[in-house]
Specification:
single chain, about 400 residues, alpha/beta, FAD/NAD(P)-binding domain, 8-stranded mixed β-sheet, 7-stranded mixed β-sheet, elongated
């Protein structure tokens, strides 16, 4: 039996609880929002079907911008205790070292991250373990009936259920697919140790359009060496089945230039695969309820903007909108829409969607426009490599790559 399932015992009995904010879904978005609101003195209920978050392959690395949001929300110390920092990043293009960047990145496993964030929740926000059976929303009060018969009433309902559709359907909102089966995330451990690997992080960009590979990135998570690869294929593609059967063979063929550095790509874990579609939400502008994170929209994780969207949603709600909403009576749609119309949220969502679409097109499209774009980009990169070699011969410092 799965560990999460075997430990499913109620963390709190809701009874007929009355709170200011009820949050359904205790993934990263819901748990973060509950922590921030409770620290601000708000009465919050956090509801999830599982006491321990189930094993899930999701985001595994963030950059300094996302870390800045964790810090702004007051969650930096908890996150840092669960992540592995990196500052020396090696980037390979055209089969050779293209750039060595000095920048902060943080690697983590999603499931331990969520469980660690749950364990760090303030005592006044115990996790209510239960499934939502009925939902009713309105301009003043929101009501959740759980399958165990308990009831939670709130002024505001926040839906943070990720890809799950049950609560969304019960409320009557629709998920709209903007790009079905847009990309595929692949994750696995390498048998080589971080000490043998020698680097903190290595990213290798695909060389051929036909391979449909965005990039492979290899990094430390604690004492494990982890690999994430992003490809523009579907789960049903025969390429994916072949990769799962013999990932080492395919990686040796695709990326021979870095094979020795990576222990010849001996894989030490199950190959995890997650299909991602780009989606938005329709019918969400309504009384009493707000949708955040992947419950509102989904984008490709290859660009790293998914975590940024989640944390931006939490920040906008916790620092601006929820405090303002609770100051006055009612929770009608005009209040809720202020969040969806927030220029900071809009910018984060649009940037993530735009980057997701562009990255796939620049990698896979074969039309004249995209061939010319790749030629322009690659010519500039080759000139940078040539310039760096000439500077080394002349004993001059190389400029930083853009």
């Amino acid at each position: 039996m799965n560990t999460a399932q075997s430990r499913e015992t109620p963390a709190a009995q809701a009874g007929a609880a009355e709170v200011e904010v009820a949050i359904v879904g205790a993934g990263l978005a819901g748990t973060s929002l509950a922590a921030v609101l409770s620290k601000a003195g708000r009465k919050v209920a956090l509801i999830d079907p599982h006491l321990v978050h189930h094993d899930e392959f999701r985001a595994e690395k963030i950059g300094m911008k996302q870390m800045g949001l964790f810090e702004k929300l007051g969650l930096g110390p908890v996150f840092r205790s669960l992540a592995t920092p990196m500052t020396d990043l090696h980037v390979f293009r055209f089969g050779q070292l293209f750039e060595r960047k000095k920048a902060w990145e943080y690697a983590f496993s999603y499931t331990p991250l969520v469980n660690g964030m749950r364990q760090a929740l303030p005592a006044q926000v115990p996790l209510t373990v239960g499934k939502v059976a009925e939902v009713s929303t309105g301009p003043d009060r929101q009501r959740l009936a759980l399958t165990d018969g308990s009831v939670i009433e709130a002024r505001l309902l926040v839906v943070a259920t990720g890809y799950s559709e049950a609560v969304r359907r019960a409320i009557g909102v629709e998920r709209v697919e903007e790009s079905k089966a847009h990309s595929l995330s692949i994750g696995f451990d390498l048998a080589i140790t971080p000490q043998e690997f020698g680097l903190q992080s290595l990213t290798f960009y695909g060389r051929r359009v036909a391979d449909r590979i965005a990039f492979l990135t290899i990094f430390r998570i604690g004492e494990r060496l982890r690999a994430n690869m992003f490809v523009y294929r579907t789960v049903a593609d025969p390429w994916v089945r072949t990769f799962r059967e013999n990932p080492q063979k395919m990686l040796l063929e695709l990326m021979p230039e870095i094979a020795a550095r990576c222990g010849n790509f001996v894989v030490a874990s199950e190959v995890e695969v997650r299909q991602v579609s780009l989606t938005t939400t329709k019918g969400h502008r309504r009384d009493g309820v707000v949708f955040i994170g992947d419950a509102f929209a989904t984008t490709c994780p290859a660009q790293g903007d998914g975590m940024h969207r989640v944390l931006t949603d939490v920040d906008c709600l916790a620092s601006t909108h929820i405090p303002a909403w609770l100051e006055t009576p009612g929770m009608a749609a005009d209040k809720i829409c202020a969040f969806y119309d927030d220029p900071v949220k809009i910018a984060a969502d649009e940037r993530a969607m735009r980057a997701s679409i562009y990255a796939r097109r620049i990698t896979t499209e074969t039309g004249l426009e995209w061939r010319l774009r790749r030629l322009r980009n690659n010519t500039a990169r080759h000139l940078m490599i040539l310039g760096r070699k000439m500077r080394r011969r002349e004993g001059l410092p190389a400029p930083r790559a853009a």
